[in-house]
Amino acid sequence: MSSESGPGPELSRRLGYLFKHAAIRLHELHARALAPFGIDGRELGVLIVIDSHEPASQQQAARRLGVDRTTMVAVLDVLEGKGLVFRRPHEEDRRRNVIDLTDHGRETLRRAVRASDEAEGALLAALDPQDRKRLRDALQRIVAAGDPAEG
């Protein structure tokens, strides 16, 4: 790499630069992989959370994803419009909405997860299987540790 192309050795070692450009690449790969299903990466994440917990409230799903209620309602409105989720009043507390996947949502999720896995595989293709596992494990530990300022 010449000194006039690319970020240079100092910047290309910085985590901020590396995370940003890896995330951009993953976003591009996901956008292509998920386009046939009419969803994006954020919507896939919401579908995964809804599917992984027995019918949850909008509030519970928002907490699990770390988004505010207003954002969650907007995403759910879009997913409901696409016929992927439905909302119904909670049996014991009619003020709360329970969300669940439609049959179409379950099928879309199944196929979209497979496409997402392939996109992640493409991103990680330069790594051997052990390095892929180590990278995931390390990132999971970083995320699980949370913000030290909150601790």
Automatic annotation (TrEMBL):
It holds the Pfam family MarR_2. Gene3D superfamilies: Winged helix-like DNA-binding domain superfamily/Winged helix DNA-binding domain. Signal peptide: none annotated. SUPFAM superfamilies: Winged helix' DNA-binding domain. Keywords: DNA-binding, Transcription, Transcription regulation. Residues 8-144 form the HTH marR-type domain. This is MarR family transcriptional regulator.
